[in-house]
Write a structure and sequence with these properties.
- Two copies of one chain form a homodimer.
- Chain A is mainly β.
- Chain A has one domain: Electron Transport, Fmn-binding Protein, Chain A (Pnp Oxidase, Chain A, Roll), CATH 2.30.110.10.
- Chain A is about 10% helix and about 40% strand.
- Chain A has three helices and twelve strands, in the order αβββββαβαββββββ.
- The first copy, chain A, has helices at about 15-25, 70-75, 90-95; strands at about 30, 30-35, 40-45, 50-55, 60-65, 80-85, 110, 115-120, 125-135, 140-150, 165, 170-175.
- In chain A, the strands form three sheets. A seven-stranded antiparallel beta sheet of chain A has the order 3-2-6-9-10-5-4. A three-stranded antiparallel beta sheet of chain A has the order 1-11-12, with no helix packed on it.
- In chain A, strand 9 and strand 10 form a beta hairpin.
- Chain A is globular, with a radius of gyration of 18 Å.
- The termini of chain A are far apart.
- The interface between A and B is large, with 83 and 84 residues.
């Protein structure tokens, strides 16, 4: 095969440590994703949630196969994506801590009429139908369609909904103190 | 069809305004994505970039079909994802402004030996091979494998690489002032 036909597929991948360094310093908005495929609720904290389309209303997120919630999310037809703010840091930490029962505190969560577990009092949540799962390495990328939502705090309505971000292994809160220009 | 067989697909989607309100308040780390499929460079600012796997090193992002860069990104086999920090706000704004030539300032960018356009001096960039494109509504979700990277500023190395975030239609900078706990 002539050199000019060589494809990028032949190019070695970036070493893991270099890749981790890029994303350690890349901020991510924080979400808690919950689901129940019929055999009990699962929850996990994710920084990969992003809106991809407004009409239809679609969002994307990814889950590592190593996550304790991965198997349930492979089967669940619906999920609840909770968009967290700085007031929700305890919920964010709960979904990021391994080896605990994330539903042990029964007063912190309830069930929607459709059955999905939802954590109460967080900034906002959106119930979604999973419409696509794409395997990518040891992870799955989910595309989901938004069905129903509730917003508890919205800074556009004058409520102090200050964003929660994970960056350089640290939780950060957004607000007037972090604005770069007006 | 019995009611119990009704699928979520029959459930109406969330109204666009409700969906926008959820994500207006959801913080996103800021990236600039560049590519050249052979007929000139394109660049756009995105808040949807996320790491999905370390081995192989994979990331995901999405692009609206309405973006001026969408057509080129449909054909490009490689892209450069620039992970921006607060010092890079001018680059972030450049890629978010419509109707301008984003490559007019020739001293701000160069080409890698492999041909892709890269903006100089930003916090970090990673050159990737596009390995999957998934159509979702009016957008495309890209899965890309990391090939090569460069980090200019890394707070773990003591360099002040303060994160750049977009939230509630405003740019925010992360740092000691935004840390929630130590």
């Amino acid at each position: 095969m002539p050199a000019s036909k060589a494809t990028e597929s032949a190019t070695p991948s970036l070493p893991a440590d270099d890749f981790k360094a890029i994303f350690r310093g890349h901020p991510g908005g924080v979400s808690l994703i919950t689901a129940d495929a019929g055999d009990g609720p699962v929850a996990l904290t994710a920084t990969s949630v992003a809106s991809i389309s407004v009409d239809p209303p679609l969002l994307v997120f990814s889950i590592s196969a190593l996550s304790s919630a991965a198997k349930v999310l492979t089967r669940a037809t619906t999920v609840v994506v909770h968009s967290l703010d700085a007031q929700d840091i305890d919920v964010a930490k709960l979904g990021a801590t391994s080896g605990i029962d994330r539903f042990a505190q029964k007063q912190t969560w309830s069930r929607l009429s459709t059955g999905e577990p939802v954590f109460d009092g967080v900034r906002a949540w959106v119930r979604c139908e999973v419409i696509e799962r794409v395997q990518a390495g040891a992870s799955t990328v989910f595309v989901a369609r938004a069905l129903q939502s509730q917003i508890e705090r919205d800074s556009e309505l004058g409520q102090p909904g200050n964003g929660l971000v994970y960056h350089n292994r640290t939780w950060h809160g957004l607000g007037e103190h972090s604005r770069l220009d007006s």
